[in-house]
Write a structure and sequence with these properties.
Layout (H helix, E strand, L loop, with lengths): L2 H11 L5 H16 L12 E9 L5 E6 L6 E2 L1 E4 L7 H13 L5 E2 L5 E8 L5 E12 L14 E6 L10 H10 L3
Parallel strand pairs: 1-7
Antiparallel strand pairs: 1-2, 1-4, 2-3, 2-8, 5-7, 6-7
Helix pairs in contact: 1-2
């Protein structure tokens, strides 16, 4: 199965809990139907990306990166690569690369989707169709900042930084899976 086919299958099988998320899910599926290259970063109108909300073993802290281009604290993640067989593979690879943490565990059901405008590695304005997954770090995990980040740190889920995007919504969704 190709990454494109996996993205279609993953999003077809996912049932989000809100109408806005369902509308975005349908938009993602429409984009995938229109573009066979939708999972490739070379797709100029936009491309599928995969990200990971990383919680510590206690679900009391979330690992966020201070993104150099965006200038905000975000979940880990990024572009799909030709070596990624699935969106889960892409999100887990990105989380591992950006956190330096081995032994991360990822849930295969998407947590959230989002579309955002960005000028990424193409050097041109485009859109990221981001599929977000929940990832758990092992007990005692110590992150190591990669070159892709200005800063990387654990934040208490009850005391997130002020310059975040959709992170509070992602944290709420993640914590609701454990209640």
């Amino acid at each position: 199965m190709s990454l494109h086919a996996d993205a279609v299958s993953t999003l077809t099988g996912w049932r989000p809990g809100t109408e806005p998320q369902e509308a975005l899910r349908q938009a993602f599926l429409g984009f995938l139907a229109a573009r066979e290259d939708a999972c490739q970063r070379s797709c100029e109108p936009g491309h599928i990306t995969a990200s990971a909300l990383v919680l510590d073993a206690t679900a009391e802290n979330v690992l966020l990166t201070l993104h150099p281009r965006v200038g905000r604290w975000l979940q880990l993640g990024g572009h799909c690569e030709p070596s990624d067989a699935t969106l889960v593979d892409a999100a887990l690879r990105e989380a591992t690369e950006e956190s330096g943490i081995r032994g991360l565990r990822i849930e295969s059901t998407p947590l959230h989707v989002d579309v955002h405008a960005i000028t990424c590695s193409l050097g041109k304005p485009t859109r990221h169709f981001d599929v977000r997954f929940l990832v758990r770090a092992p007990v005692g995990a110590k992150p190591v900042r990669s070159a892709e980040s200005v800063d990387l740190q654990w934040w208490p889920v009850e005391a997130l930084p002020s310059n975040v995007d959709t992170v509070p919504e992602l944290v709420d969704l993640a914590l609701s899976r454990y209640r």
